[in-house]
Amino acid sequence: MPEFLSPGARFTLPNAQDLDEGANSVQNYTLSPDEHFYLEMQIRGDGSKYPELVLKKALDREQQATHRLVLTAKDGGNPPKSGDVPVIVTVLDTNDNAPEFEHSVYRASILENSPSGTLVAQVHATDLDEGPNGEVRYSFSNTTSADLQQMFSVHPHTGEVTVNGVLAVQRPLLEMLIEARDNGAFGMSSTAKLLVEITDVNNHGPEITITSLSSPIPEDAAPGTVIALLSILDKDPGENGKVTCQISENLPFQLKPSLQNYYSLVTSELLDRELISEYNITVTATDLGSPPLTTQKIVWVQISDVNDNPPVFSADAFDVFVEENNPLGAFLYQVSASDPDIGENGRVSFSLRNSTVAGSALTSFLSMDLANGSIYAKRAFDFEQLRSFHFQVEAKDNGSPALSAAITVNVYISDQNDNAPAILYPTSHNGSVAVEVVPRLADEDYLVTKVVADDEDNAQNAWLSYHLSHASDSTLFQLSPHTGELRTTRSLRSTDFLKHKVVVVVRDHGEPPLSSTVTVGILLADTLPQALPDFDDSGEAPPLLNATNIYLIVSLACVSFIFAAFIFFLAIVRLCRCRTCCCCCPADDYKKYCYSVHMLPSSHLPPDMLEVTGVGKLTHTYLYRASVGLGPSNSSIPNGDAGNVASGSRLQVPGPCIQVQQVQSDRSSVVLVSSVTRGEEEKTNPLGGSSAGVPVEAGQGDGAAARMNLRGSRGAALLQQQRVHKRAVSSPRPQSSGSEAGAETRSGGGGTGAAPLRAGRAPAPRAAELRGRNTWVDPRRLAARGARITSGSGRQYLELELGRGALLVRERMDREALCELSPSCFLSLELVIEQPIEVHNVEVEVLDINDNAPRFPRQDYRLEISESAVPGARFHIESAQDPDVGTNSVQNYLLSPSRHFALDLKGFQSGSKLLELVLQQTLDREQSALQQLVLTAVDGGDPPKSGTAQISVRVVDTNDNPPAFDRSTYTVSLLENSLPGTLVVKLNASDPDEGSNGDVIYSFGSYTPQKVRQLFTVDPHSGEVRVNGTLDYEEASSYEIYVQATDQGPVSMAGHCKVLVNIVDANDNAPEVELTSLYSPVPEDARSGTVVALMSVTDQDSGLNKQVSLRIPPGLPFTLNSFKNSYTLVTQGKLDHEKAAAYNITVTATDSGSPPLSSQKVIHVEISDINDNPPRFEEPVYSVYIPENNPIGAFLCTIKATDPDVAKNAHVSYSLLDGEIEGLPAASYVSIKSDSGNMYAVRSFDYETLREFQVIVQAQDAGIPPLSSTVTVYIYVVDENDHAPQILYPTSTNTSAALEMIPRSAYAGYLVTKIIAIDGDSGQNAWLFFSLVQTSDPGLFRIELHTGEIRTTRKLGEDSTPTFNLTVEVRDNGEPSMSSSVSITIAVVDRVSKIIPDRRRHFKSPSNYSEVTLYLIIALSAISFVFLFTIIGLSIIKCYRYSLYGSSCCAGCCTVRERSPAELYKQANNNIDARLPQGLKVQPHFIEVRGNGSLTKTYCYKACLTAGSGSDTFMFYNTCGPTGTTGPSAVVTERHLTGQSGQSAQNLIILRNDSITPNEPKHPNPDWRYSASLRAGMQSAVHVEEAGVLRGGPAGPDQQWPTVSSATAVLMM
């Protein structure tokens, strides 16, 4: 018994057994006297008595561990008898004593540098309990600070306190609390104080401070780049304060000492962010003390990325599978690529590389998402056209410069069923019916035709099957589903219709399947007239328009369109001319606009051309040869001839007359022209005066760009070219070097500079001034020397006022955060002064105020106290902490009122950090499981502050209550046939304890017999009692089961009950069948009633359960006869060995119980055989196919017959019955082997003589008497190709050909005749193919390959020959093939009176045909005449204008006819010489205009391009050619400028004069280029003018090169 049990606890004692009954049985129990126990008698539900031991006084193991009692049982006899049994009670220990230390305070002394493992002290505590309750373990109390627990360790068993680490403390005396706790279930503990005195040694390690850090740094930083500046400080004096600093050697960095205790961290080699993106650089500082101390500081340096890695694809190539007919925009695949770079350098975009697929651009097939690499289809793919293709995908990052990579993507297209079968044969045209002729003599299985089809799909989509959709006579024809052969199902009859129509459906095996149909017309014919009628259901309508009408309509439409386009073009030209033409420029307009033309050699133009650009309304750039008027500002040119104008001269060109766009080039020499008005020029002149230059940039090529200055002076101005290099928009500001780098930043400037010392706060109180005895520097020079205050803590509490040298408070300081519980608090600062660098230490003392309330380490304390704890037990609570010091710290504690607990403050008053909670009254968990207390700590400040903590005391349960059942006795009834697992009863016991003390386990009691334990089981958790074995009422009618419920406490307690089970009897014995005799086998001809077997039946049950009945399955030829419990099995009906050679007869015996039981007995009876079955053939009819001309003795087939009898009754022999075939015995044709049934041919067969015959074969067994049967064998002779085709129609003799007539108006596809031929062979040997081997007009007639129909391929012409001769060959499909031919003469007649009707031939009325054609011809002629008349009229008007205005091009463009340019020019007294030089290599429509003398007026002309062109863009052209003289000294000075149309201008400016030899052709520069808008036209112009053609001249062959004017002329036309 556990010692914590309360008085009143009860324990059931065992009953005494007495064989007597009644009053002589046990009547009373007595117990020996004891102060702790007494005995009480209890009565069970059945009236029996049992003793219970009751606890009278609480037990204490420490006082008495064992109690010995004597229990006496007495009966009621006379004299009474008794029996004794000793009862030994062992008191089990509970944890009710806490460990006790030998001393409450332990003292020790140790050096500060004591190594780990040094013994400090040893504590010892004892516990009066035994076992685990008395085992003591030592540990630090929770109130001991974490740093002390790390520096020291206490052995859990010996109590030895040793050094565990480095003693890094600032206090000379350390206080620790050691806790001793036993190992009980709810351990109890006590504490002792340990005071350790520390002897000072070198205990200050170096301190590393990072004063500046540059992170991140680019990975391409050069070696030697400064990353960080470190400051090292050691508080120890002397050698202990000297420090060395280092970093790991395997890093790309190194430390360089700069000043005393200062180090620079710099790079030592190149960095790579992809390998290492950041570095944790451990800086190790070691002092020179003994032993030396080491400090480490980790400097985190990030590496910024530069774009040095191209994207990498996830695979070498990608394979994409897509089904054909995909929807537009369907997703195909997503390529992925990664870039080890980050940010924009690592962001990858995708694109498709330019390529072609099947002749088209890749972008017409696919599109790609640039962001994620998804590929989409832009069109539906077709497997039949394109099965696969590949392309390349480019992945490019966004770095600068961008890097890229490419990968190949293979696209495979899967087939779908999207093509219906195409029927190749038989063919039908325009709804016509394909006709096949079948002779009326055709037999069964005659091949009518074969449907041939094809499917463009692939695989199973192209597998075809043939089906009959419709047949006019479904009993006459059949279609092979795989070959497409159409055959007759029977022989033709005289009653069959002459015409039959069959619709054949050809279907593929796709999903879904597609199909096509063809209609086959079948004609049963004996003679020719029956074979020719057409099978079309309806006639084909003749075409509405013939070929001639269609050609006329197309011609009429084309002429009308050209005429309308011509009129529209003239209207547009006229409108443009009215708006843009300006032949005569007013003088004001000329003065308003001026061009500054810069003439320079150009590498992208021919050497005799100059490119001019300007401003205007044109949207395209054209290059023209043009004449430019010479204005008054150009009067400086001598004699009006610009041939000697020096390079660089400025020419004044009227702006409204020439309009030129800017041309951009990547070459260094570019000539640009631009114009400004005089008013605008004055506004844009930054220097004033009449001359100003407006720079205009012309492109951003690799070389220099051309700049133009547009000047407004009236005199000759200099035209110059300047080379302008590209410049950055802004240049970086210069950075200072040395000690002045980053000294000061201007206010309002960008970038980063030195931060101001003041933080923008209100003026702070002055902390100190750097004056007095510490005047190491003039305060006025602090700002100049960059003085600043640094703090090792990283936070700047103070700031330096540079003007006075005073320290000011920058932000609020917290003494508790800075110095924690130290009595004095000093803030250490460093004053750093540069130029040169000086470092000075500054200390500021911080005083304490009562600004912190007491605070417990935890706001909620949870204590678990066992309800067995005795009053006086103590429990430790952590004291409150107050960061303040002195009287501002904690001074008193208060506890909320409680009748169970009190607070002991004696330890606190003596200086301990622990509070003790004392138990005043015993706890009971069943009454109160949780108690809440409030502990308050109050400090001594003014006013005082307090802090509270919640104490939750949970009463831990002890096992002081035994389980109790609902009832003491349970009574149940149970059938004896209950199956194992049947529920007997469910017990329920409860325990008021909690946890494992309240968990109840059920088990059999010690009084339960072993037999009962085998028959029943009890679930230990649910209390369910179930059947475990087989119950038998005959063995026992009831059972008593004793069950106990035990809790799971440390000292378990139990409760008991009894279960009484009454067994109910049931029918549980099945009858047994015994076979006494058996007669087997039984002959199959045995008579009904024959005895087969004898049986007897027994049943161990009685009454109705013993009455038994027997039966056998129905349907058997047997029956049962009974006599009491004996039965006989006799035959009933006829037996048949062939149907059943043996019987397994199941005899079932069933009793009359409830439910009834039964058993079965299987009797095997065999049936013996007699000869009662004849042989039977495997086939009812045998069909044998043998090719004709077979060799004698050829094997035909094997005849097989079987006999269901056995042994000799089943032995079969074969023979031929007598019969005749065409008057001869059957044995003269075939023979058969009697034992095997193999049949052989006795002669060679001929298909044309004998196609089939039959013989009768007999099979006979060897039984007595023998039995036999016969079978008919049909032998079919298979045809071979030994007959040539026979042409039935048309027929021709040896001297004449067959004659056919066709009308002259026969249209294309007209049926001329049909060749009808037959072949004596059959099958594919009779498949006939028709072909034309000879014809007088090969293109006029064609013949259908399979039907033999001869049709016209086109309409007969009026001039066709009257007769045509054809030779048709008919060839069969045999191997080898054989053929026949027929000659046909076709006569063309105007009228066929006796032609075979053809419902598809329809003719239109000749009058209608002629009327439509006539109307079309009249309309075409009228429109052509009007068009031609319009052109002639315009040409006459144009020639008249040319003659009126002196052949001036500009005159044709002008709309104002006030005065012609020629007249104006003549009034200026200029001699105009218009001539065509003899040696000028230009086309005849180019003329040269020259003038001499000084021009007095300015004339403005517009160069005409074509009759309707208003373009204002020109190219100055420089021509050269011989003047009739030969020799190298001859210099041609003429220069010719023309417009596009070739008409010369009357005023001429010569831009350049070069000396060219007469016979030396001027080759174009190979690097000259035209604008994009001219390339297409120039390519065609080269062909028009036949570029490179050599022309003969006076000086020999000369080459004429294509000109720009010709190319432009082609474009304009």
Provide a descriptive summary of the structure in words.
The chain is mainly beta. Helix content is 9%, strand content 35%. It is built from 13 helices and 103 strands. The strands form 35 sheets. Strands 8-15-14-11 form a 4-stranded mixed β-sheet, with no helix packed on it. Strands 16-18-21-20 form a 4-stranded antiparallel β-sheet, with no helix packed on it. Strands 17-23-22-19 form a 4-stranded mixed β-sheet, with no helix packed on it. A hairpin with a 2-residue loop joins strand 84 (1220-1221) and strand 85 (1224-1225). The longest helix has 39 residues, at 1406-1444. The radius of gyration is 64 Å and the shape is flat. The model is unreliable at 528-541, 581-775, 1393-1409 and 1447-1613 (pLDDT under 50).
Secondary structure: elements and pairs:
Layout: E1 10-12, E2 26-31, E3 37-43, E4 49-55, E5 66-75, E6 82-90, E7 100-101, E8 105-111, E9 119-122, E10 125-126, E11 136-140, H1 146-151, E12 152-154, E13 160-163, E14 173-182, E15 189-199, E16 207-213, E17 217-218, E18 226-233, E19 243-246, E20 253-257, E21 262-267, E22 278-287, E23 294-304, E24 312-313, E25 317-323, E26 331-334, E27 337-338, H2 343-346, E28 348-352, E29 356-357, E30 360-361, E31 366-368, E32 374-377, E33 388-397, E34 404-414, E35 422-425, E36 434-439, E37 447-450, E38 452-454, E39 464-471, E40 477-479, E41 485-488, E42 499-508, E43 515-525, H3 547-580, H4 587-592, E44 593-595, E45 609-611, E46 675-677, H5 678-683, E47 705-707, E48 722-724, E49 766-769, E50 788-791, E51 798-801, E52 806-809, H6 815-819, E53 826-833, E54 838-845, E55 860-866, E56 874-878, E57 890-895, E58 901-904, H7 906-909, E59 914-919, E60 930-939, E61 946-956, E62 964-965, E63 969-975, E64 983-986, E65 989-990, E66 1000-1004, H8 1010-1015, E67 1016-1018, E68 1024-1027, E69 1038-1047, E70 1054-1064, E71 1072-1078, E72 1082-1083, ...
Parallel strand pairs: 8-15, 17-23, 25-34, 36-43, 55-61, 63-70, 72-78, 80-89, 91-98
Antiparallel strand pairs: 1-4, 2-5, 3-4, 5-6, 7-10, 9-13, 11-14, 12-13, 14-15, 16-18, 18-21, 19-22, 20-21, 22-23, 24-27, 26-32, 28-33, 29-30, 31-32, 33-34, 35-38, 37-41, 39-42, 40-41, 42-43, 44-46, 45-101, 47-48, 49-52, 50-53, 51-52, 53-54, 56-59, 57-60, 58-59, 60-61, 62-65, 64-68, 66-69, 67-68, ...
Helix pairs in contact: 3-9, 12-13
